[in-house]
Amino acid sequence: MKKLRLMALFLAAGITLSIGSQANAEVGYLNYQKILDNYPAAQQAVKEIDAKSLELQQYMVDKEKQYKALDTPLKKQNFETQTAAEFNAKQEALFKLRNSKETQILNQVQTAAKAVMVAQKLDAVLSDQVIFVGGVDITDLVIQKLKGQ
Questions:
Q1: What whole-number distance in Å separates Cα of residue 19 and Cα of residue 34?
Q2: What percentage of the chain exceeds 70 in pLDDT?
Q3: What distances in angstroms separate CA 9 from CA 6, 65, 70, one per listed residue?
């Protein structure tokens, strides 16, 4: 009977300690835009996407010049149909590239943030946009981690 009471006492103490430690949860936050601005891989991805966007714009300028040179309505209509199909394919490729790069960068930032979270013994990492007061800013630590990879 004494052993049962002793176990119940230890169990109650353990529950009390775990509840107390949860009340002191540490939360980190990061500024995602600052990370993107200071992460070379993200800057390179933006440059690639911008270059593809410029290529698409130049494609349309070139097609407009070709369209003006056509002399019959039938040629113009066929040209419009063909150009629209080509433009849609190029635009879809640009969207896929953008989504791929954004996903890749987001995954890298999440991996670095998780590593910093573990190293700093934080319970969670949130965006700085959802933190009103408190928390620990880990933005610079995440940037350092990303640059070190």
A1: 35
A2: 83
A3: 5, 86, 91
Spatial CB neighbours of 18, under 8 Å, sequence gap ≥ 6: none
CB neighbourhood size of 33 (10 A): 12
Give me the long-range contacts of 70-73 (CB less than 8 A, separation at least 24): none
**Three-class SS of residue 29?**
strand
- Distance between CA 63 and CA 68 in Å, rounded? 9
For the chain, the average pLDDT equals 86
Tell me the three state secondary structure of residue 89.
helix
- Rounded to an integer, what distance in angstroms lies between the CA atom of residue 76 and that of residue 16? 79
DSSP state of 125: E
Q: Give CA–CA dist 134/54, Å, rounded.
A: 43
CA 145 to CA 115: how far, in whole Å? 8
- Judged against a pLDDT cut of 60, whether residue 129 lies above it is answered with yes
Whole-structure pTM value = 0.74
* Whether residue 123 has pLDDT greater than 50: yes
Segment (H or E) for 2:
helix 2-23
